[in-house]
Amino acid sequence: MPTMTRAGYTPPKQEPPRAPKPEPPRKKKKKGRKKRGLSGAAVASLAVFLLAAAIGAGTIYVYTQTQPYQQTFVPGTILMGYPLAGATRGDAERLLDAIAAEHVDTWRYEISCMDQTYTLTAQDIGLDIDKEQTLALLWPAGHEGGMLTRYRQMRRVAKDGLVIAYPVLTYDLSAVDALLARIRADVECNAVDATVAYMPGSAAPFTFTDEQTGCALELDADDVRSAVEQSLMKLAPGSMTLEATVIEPQVYRAVLESSLSLRARVVAQVTGGEAAVHNVRLAAQALRGLRVDSGDTLSFNEAVGARTPENGYLSAPEPAYGENVSGVGGGVCQVSTALHRAALLGCIDVRERSAAARPVAYCDMGQEAAVSDQGLDLVLANQTDAPLFVNARVYEDDGATYLEMTLIGEELGRRYRLNSLIDETGTIEEPVYVRDREGQYATYTDERVPVGAALAGYEVSLERVTLDENGLEIAAEIVSDSVYEAVPPTIYVGVQQRDAQ
Partner of 412 at 20 to 30 A CA spacing, among 259, 318, 378, 383? Predict the structure, then answer.
């Protein structure tokens, strides 16, 4: 618009045109950077919504995974190689029935011993499948707890697997013990030694029986039960062999036949009257055919028995009781002496022996064996490896009576002789006076009746001499010592006073 002045109109001064100012470059706006503010309530609502959506989606997913297996086994469940995923308990029970028919009912265990075979069956031990216990190991997985817990169990089973290699079984192993007892009864037996019976006086005095081997089982019942149990736990048939040990007899017939030979023989004339001879016959009869097995002992008193009238023995002079004294069974010491001498000649151990009070007439000094019912005994021990047989007999020859004592047993292989080495120890001259209260020898106090002469004393060593095949001495040993005390003269004195004349 024109500017008015006092001078009139002055045209506007024309300014030269200015160069346009350069505009600063504009910053580009980033997309999405522009925020619009939301209230806190809106944010919270959105978060709750999203969480609920996530939970709902997860719940739906878990539900869809677990729902199909609420009444069936979950994936990864396996029984004896059979997958049970999707199978009901009824299906599993029918599977167990099939397993029982295929594996349980046909189970067998065989035990062999000495060419015999014994079979143990499922029926013998009551073998069966415990269905409840077996399924109780598989069913809880995926069926216990809340839905999430069940889902986690399903995932773990699906990943790792829940495998039962064998079902739970019921059985009774007492049948194994019964079978072992039966096997023992069938197989085990003791060895039987060959035997020999001796019948002296017979044309064939020896009768033999054969030996038999025995058998013993080498087994541990616990080991057998364990092996059977391992087999049935796997439902697989099994077998084992029991080793048997052969027990050899200790005595063979061949050895008996070759070892029974005459080991020693003693013949002695019987002294004394008819009563003594009678007693000798009774004692010899008790020893006739007597057997002493290897390692056993022989007691003369036990073998012969008590010398009593009830057993048939008579009263006869008996050196063991002293001079001029009779006793029931007098003369029997002649039998024990013959047995003692035979034992020494046959190298049989003499465990117990007593010398007589005085030297006897029926053998050399130091060779007798005094016996009595009051404790004196003759005891022998058979230390050989074969039985020892005793044979005693009394016989008549040319008006005399003889006692023969023989020992039959293991071959001796050598001969012996007995020597009595006698050392006289002197006599006692001073008499011994005995009051004859029974008036057997003297009646009055002024009577002096000599009854026994003085007897010398002796010390005797009995020597056993070993002879070679030509009868020459090759060795000697002292086997016993005997002492016979000196006996003074005996004078009996009466005990009654004579009437005065």
Answer: 378
Per-residue pLDDT tens over the stretch 30-58: 555 555 556 778 778 777 877 777 777 87
Q: Is 174 a residue whose pLDDT tops 90?
A: yes
The CA R_g of the chain, rounded to the nearest whole Å, is 59
- Find, among 6, 292, 254, 242, the residue nearest to 115 by Cα: 242
Residue 63 has pLDDT above 90, yes or no: no
Q: pLDDT band for 413, please (50, 70, 90 cuts).
A: confident
Q: Name the pairing type of β-strands 388-397 and 432-435.
A: unpaired
How far apart (Å, rounded) are the C-alpha atoms in residues 218 and 239? 16
Strand 77-79 with 162-164, pairing:
parallel
Residues near 129 by beta carbon (within 8 Å), at least 6 away in sequence = 96, 99, 100, 104, 167, 168, 169, 170
Q: For residue 350, list its beta bridge partners.
A: 380
Residue 219 has pLDDT above 70, yes or no: yes
Strand partners, 395: 402
Q: What are phi and psi of 304, to 5 degrees?
A: -85, -35
Mean pLDDT estimate for the chain: 88
- The structure tokens listed for 485 are 């005390």
Longest dimension (CA), the chain: 244
Q: What letter would DSSP give residue 310? A: G
Q: What is the pLDDT of residue 500?
A: 67
Best-predicted range by mean pLDDT (13-17, 377-381, 497-501): 377-381
Q: Which two tokens stand for residue 103?
A: 């594996």
Report which DSSP code applies to 309.
G
- The residue behind tokens 């004339």 is 269
The beta strand positions in 30-133, using DSSP E, are 77-79, 82-83, 108-113, 116-121, 128-129
Q: Assign 318 to helix, strand or coil.
A: coil
* Cα four-point dihedral sign 308, 309, 314, 316: positive
Q: DSSP alpha helices (H): ranges in 129-269?
A: 131-136, 147-160, 174-187, 221-233, 253-259
Whether 178 has a pLDDT exceeding 70, the answer reads: yes
Which band of pLDDT confidence, cut at 50, 70 and 90, is reported for residue 12? low
Ramachandran angles phi, psi of 444, nearest 5°: -105, 155
Confidence of residue 322 (pLDDT cuts 50, 70, 90): very low
Q: Shortest CA distance to 107 belongs to which of 236, 227, 240, 224? A: 236
2-9: which pairs have CB atoms within 8 A and are 24 or more residues apart? none
Tens-place pLDDT, residues 78-97: 999 999 999 999 999 999 99
The two three-digit tokens of residue 349, written as one number: 């151990």
Domains, the chain, ranges and CATH?
Answer: 69-186+221-242 (no CATH), 263-413 (no CATH), 414-501 (2.20.230)
β-bridge mates for residue 460, sequence order:
422, 482
